[in-house]
Amino acid sequence: MKKRLPIGRSDFKSLIEDNMYFVDKSMLIKEVIESGDVLLITRPRRFGKTLSQSMMKYFFDITQNNEHLFKNLKIYKEKNIIEKHLNKHPVIYITFKDLKSNNLKKMHALLTMELSRLYTKHEYVFEILSEKEKIVFKEIMLETADDAKYENCIRSLSEYMERYYGKKVIILIDEYDTPIQQAYLYGYYDEIISLIGNLFGMALKDNVYLEKAVLTGITRVSKESIFTGVNNLEVSTVLNELFNDKYGLTKEEVEETLKYYELEYEESEVIDWYNGYNFGGVEIYNPFSIVTLAKNKGKIRPYWMNTSGNYLVKQLIKQGSAELKDKIEKLINGEEIESTINETMVYGDLNNNLEESVWTLFLFSGYLKWTKNINHDYERYTLKIPNKEVKIFYNKTVVSMLEEERIKLNNILINLINGHIEEFKEDFQKLTINTLSYFDVSGEEPERFYHGLILGMSVGLKEKYIIKSNRETGLGRADVILIPKDKTDKGIIIEFKKFYKNEKTLLNSAKNGLKQINEKKYEEEIKDHGINDIIKVSIAFDKKEVEIVSNLDKDVELTEIEKVAKNMIENGVDIEFISKMTNLSIEKIKNLI
What we know:
Layout: H1 12-17, H2 27-33, E1 38-42, H3 49-60, H4 67-70, H5 79-85, E2 91-95, H6 104-121, H7 131-142, H8 147-151, H9 153-165, E3 169-174, H10 178-186, H11 189-204, E4 210-217, E5 233-236, H12 251-260, H13 267-274, E6 277-279, E7 282-284, H14 287-295, H15 311-319, H16 322-332, E8 337-340, H17 347-351, H18 355-364, E9 369-375, E10 380-384, H19 388-404, H20 406-417, H21 421-434, H22 439-442, H23 447-458, E11 465-473, E12 476-484, E13 491-498, H24 506-519, H25 524-527, E14 534-542, E15 545-550, H26 560-570, H27 575-582, H28 586-591
Parallel strand pairs: 1-4, 1-5, 2-3, 3-4, 13-14
Antiparallel strand pairs: 6-7, 8-10, 9-10, 11-12, 12-13, 14-15
Helix pairs in contact: 6-7, 9-11, 10-11, 20-21, 20-23, 26-27
């Protein structure tokens, strides 16, 4: 009977006591003990941060006897550490991972509730407090304290616990930056940052009751008073070597896990889908994806990307500058980009779409990997998408952006249907510039992107139009045809033309497309439905550059002799004389006026 996989489990004790599968990361404890007084560890979501914090809580907590949890783990061989530290320290453990709210009032309530629970858990210290301290303690428990008391409450609790046990305290704070990210997302960032900053600052800065503190999160938030004055801070990000193999799975750990569950798998496929992370020079696999892969008997799927937590990244892509979107396109095409990575990123800089902050967030959140430090002085790195699983996220994000623009897309096509050709041209050209033209634009068949874009616009018109794509009509194959069900409406023919250098200009390419529509009689199928009023459009493109011509354009379909006749009309020449000189009918000449 194989051990159950711990999907969704982040409580270390229950995982071990229920004999679930556990990749032994217990040597993290030794590294933490041997590292600085205040540690900040940043890793992407679902890479084991909460489970590791839980493991350390059960290891250090003086109120428990948890030797049985560690007997079969690597750390138990470190006898000196076991004797000196196993259940020998007062521990303050608090998690902010569930502090999520779209408004300041609720976030403040969630935070005070969490601090109230913390105080209630350690209510035993009440007996050694002074009368004044007891009043404040009760206010925290009852959630009636003012902000100044909340800001000081973790530091105060560490003082009380040190007094009670006669030992300095270990503080463990899980997902410390969740409320900060929420505040940024929902517009109350400035209001919450002071409260959170003071809470951590007082707990960590010059706290004589502190033995060690370990904070985990996704990003290192700085320049915002969070760690101002915390001179004993040691930071572990995906860029440096500290704890580089303690979060996520190494290649050996993946092989061991899949072997244990007797899974047959293509190593190259698992690498392509779930590998690619670079944590301080160590090759790391996504642990959530690997565990879920094992649960699903080796079925390759985008497991991590289908979990929550993508909203901010999606918004930054959607709202990004044209330059940022161009770089996203390059990433999707498998290319690398370069950027300065600011380890002490500022969420406020995201408002200004400051690129280095955007790429820093993407890197720390697991949506990019770094491949090379190309300039140590300026912390400049080459970046790329780590694997297929994450690439699917980028592709889907682009598609969803188009879906969200559905009404706008419909309106663009309605402009064409109504004969507003200039508005159609302007809006379509803006769309191709501002919307990602991902892999199809640069690939072997870039027509697919534009073809798909027009078909996407057409979806809302199905009730009024028969929509045909790449159908044999007349003497050739039209790209998109819209046949109106009401014969009084106009038919639409759209042809896409990729630009070739021998055409000299993109406009020439577009005109050639319109000529092709006429010469190959693409309108025949529409005429077969009794529709004679037909709008013909040729869209020529060179990557994101677009030129559009239509039979609605003035003079676009005139022959050379018709242009001569029109010029003569404009110069006041008699129509009958023009007819004799050009062999054009009087009626034809009148139509040129």
